[in-house]
Structure formats: C-alpha cells, structure tokens
Description:
Layout: H1 3-26, E1 44-46, H2 47-50, E2 60-62, H3 72-87, H4 102-109, H5 112-123, H6 148-151, E3 162-163, E4 171-175, E5 192-198, E6 205-212, E7 215-217, H7 224-263, H8 269-274, H9 281-293, H10 298-302, H11 307-317, H12 328-334, H13 345-368, H14 378-390, H15 404-425, H16 430-433, H17 452-465, H18 487-511
Antiparallel strand pairs: 1-2, 3-4, 4-5, 5-6, 6-7
Helix pairs in contact: 1-5, 1-17, 3-9, 7-11, 7-14, 7-15, 13-15, 13-18
The chain binds fe (ii) ion.
Amino acid sequence: MSLINSLRWTIRKGLWNFIARRKYLATVPKDVTSVAAVWPPVSLIPLNDIYPAIPITDIRIAKRVPADEARVKEERMMARLARLCMVFSPMQAGSPPVSPDPHQAVDEAYGKRHRQAVLRQAAAPEAAPKRPLQPPALPPELQGTPDLGMLALRGPYAGYLRKASHRPDTFEWNLTALGSYSHQTHLYAPWAQVLFKPGPGHASLKAVYIQCELGSIDPGHAHWPMAVRIALCAATTHTALVRHWTWTHLIGGEFFSAATRNHLPPDHPLCRLLWPHMVGTHASNRLAILGQLVPEGDFEAIYSLTYSGLCQLLGKAGQDFNLRVCDPEEDARQRGLLDSGLPMQTYSNCRRIFQVMLAHAERYLRLYYADDNLETDQPIRNWLAELDRLIPNGLGLAPGPLTCAALARVVARFIYLASVQHEQFGTQLWNYQLWTHTHPVRVYRDGRRVPEDVYQRLVNSNYILNVVRSPLMQDFAPLALNEPACPDRQRQAEQAFARFLLDLTRLQRKMARTPWAPWALYPADLEANINA
Ligand SMILES: [Fe+2]
C-alpha cells in the first residue's frame, strides 16, 4: 500500500470509527412503560415506494412512522451518512489484510476508543442495569477447525439443524437456497448443505459431509477445511440477512407493531402487555435500513452477495418467515428433533425462557378474560385476524374457539421474537463473526484474509447492534391499566408484571451458577424489544 493510500485509509477509518462511536453513545434505553395516548393507523406500503434506491417490492413497511416513536433528526442524520458513504466510503480498494493474529485483528478494529465509549455508556446515570458489552470471546467450537457438530447444537446456528429426510439417523443444515442469488465472483458462493451423524449414545454430533461450490466433500478430503469455512459463511449470511434482519425486523417486528397499533387501543389490556415489546419498531427499522440496506450499506459491503442478489434474497426470504420458529418446542418438533436424544443446549436454554414468557402472558390474560368470553373481544379478534393475514404462513392458531392459553402462546411468540430471537440472531453474533480467521463472513477464492476495510465495517456494524436498549428484566408494572372501579385487578396486573421480572431473575440466578458461555442466552442480557 502506497504512503498516500495508507494515509487515506487512516483518515477514512478514523472518520467512520468516530461516527460508529457517536452512534453507539447517542443511543440510550427508551422508556417503554408509557403508552402513547393516541396514534394514527399504520398503513403498509412496499419498501421500494419509500426507498426508491432499494429494489425490494415484496416487503411492506409502515408508510409513516407513528409520531410517538418518530426520530426525525436521527433519520435525517442517517440519510446524510448514507450519502456520505457514497462520496467518502468506509471501504477502500486495496486496503491491507487483517492481522494473521485474530486477537490482534480484534484489538486493532475494536480499539481503545470504542471500548471507552462502552464504559462511558455503562457509567451514565440512565444506563440499563446490565452487563456492559465485553470484548468478543472466542467460542471453544471455533478454535482450530470449527466444530460444526457443536455449532449445530448450541449458539446462533442451532436453529438450522433438522432431521435429514430419507437418511436414517442423519441430521442436516440445508442452506442450499442461498445459491439462487448472485454473489461477488471473487468470493465463494455462500451456500452449503452439511450432513451430521450422532456420536455414541447421541451425546454429540459430527459433520460428515458438506455439499458446496467445491463439490461433495468429506472430512478426509483436502478441501474439507475450506468447505467448513463456506458452510459457516452460509450459516452466518442467512442468520444476519434473513433470520435477524428480514424475519425479526422487517416481517415479525414491523407487522407485530402495525397490527397492534391498528387494532388495540391504548387502554386495551392486551396493548398494555405488548407495548414494551413493540414500541419504536417502525422508527428503528428505518434507521437500520439507511445504515445497512441502502446501496453500499453494511450488508453489501460485508457479505458475499451482489446488491441485486441481496435485495432478491431479502424480498423472497420474507415469505419463508414462520412464527413457529419463535416457539422452541414447536420449532424443534417441526425439525424432527424432539426425540433425537441429542444434547441440544440452545434448545433447552430457549425453551426455559419461552416457558417464563408463556406463563407470564397466560397469567396476565386470565386477569381480564375467561376462555368463554375471549371470543367476544372484538379488538383481539381483529388483531389476530390482521396478523394471520399479514404474517407469511399465518399465526398457526388451532381451529375452534379462542382460549386464553392459545392467545398467550401467540403473545409469548412475539415477546420471544423481540427479545430472545433478536439477541440470538443479532447481538450474539458479536462473539462469532469477529473471528473471521475461522468463521468467515465471506470466503475469498484466492484464500486471502479479509481486508481491513471489510473487517472494520463488520466490527462497527456488530458494535452498533450492541447498543444499550431497554432491558427485558425491568418493572413493567406502570403499564397496568388504571382501574379506579376495579383496584384489585389493577394491583393483580402490577403483580403479574412483577412476577415476570421475578421469574426472569430466578432463571438468571440459576444460569449464573455455571460459568458464562458465549452461546448461552441470559435473561439479564435480553432486551424488551428490537429497537435501538
Ligand atoms: Fe436488530
């Protein structure tokens, strides 16, 4: 790299790192316990109608951000930054490769000033009472040649495991659909199918075969290490672009909020239960679109797809969303894993948190409804009908009269989407994606290491994903309906919210008895919703 290019890279990196820190510091936890008094209906229009530069017409987002959550100044700033990105990009062709020492690569890109910003934020008076962002930890399964079998049982990619059809006692990751979208030609295509066989007594899983652009590869093949890299690249590409961004933000989050705002008035009991898990979604999605999805945004700069391939993937993948993935037991059943006998650590972790959410939702709903009068609540019927219509593959409600238990399950799935799923597919990648020496977000055909500009963009993007949001473990009692005519029920609703916090606290204490692990999802780390 010439001296002049080196100087340009230093200036470029300094400027965009400064911007990342300002974004991190500017985000403070929102109050999610005050329900807006009024709001206009939310109408949904194709994303492309709002952002003509983004050719996605199959996904619809709110035509206008509701006034109570609008962040006009920040949206203008993000639009300016998107324009700045076009004229003074954070990317520089020919930037040097990252250090071969992965810890040094992390230290250089996630430097002292980024870490100081985290400490400053954690020390602020309005800081959330949660563990501040720690430097990324290298999961044991990423040391040496990545252990795909372990990664299939715990961590952000555990949700891809399913029983392989027509192959006895075999499991798979099937990420072949990603091969349908155009990718940058100097990179390997980010698609793969991995077959796994259980170890003795089904106590572990072992990857035994990978199908990818390199062909059909088994562990004895000289290309096995490269095939493992491609498989992980496929998993992380799908997790970041589809599971996190498209499913959690643009489909689940956007529709959940729109239906709630359109059908549940502010003083409806169900609105009070849902509010902290949806407020801010439309505004936050817009900010993220301007940072990540616009041309030359984070997604195009970091992952392997071309911009047109990226937009086609997002538009199409939205239709694959299924709310069932937010219900761990139901999801595991659909994937043929419930009787597998495998040590599915992430499944057990998620199931325990989901049970707390389900119990909370049912306890709260039963204060206001009985099974035989739920059907008469028109706002709830309208809310369910709109969600069932909007959400690809529907709500999956069983036919027959609506019960409190069935409604609680729908509610718990949305709370889970906004907190657990968002953590697992978004913020948790901090401990995985930054180790590009073993877990690549893109795989170069010539075997070179990721260049510094791509790596810095990846680090800053993950850094912003980890801004401090409103925590799940907080007292939502102020949301209880004010009922002068029925003070007992108001007190019981406050107690129901307190019980939710207590149950999460107990689970957190129980989990804290064993050493911290990068794959684990802790109640104390979860946020009330997906919004920055
Ligand atoms: Fe997110």
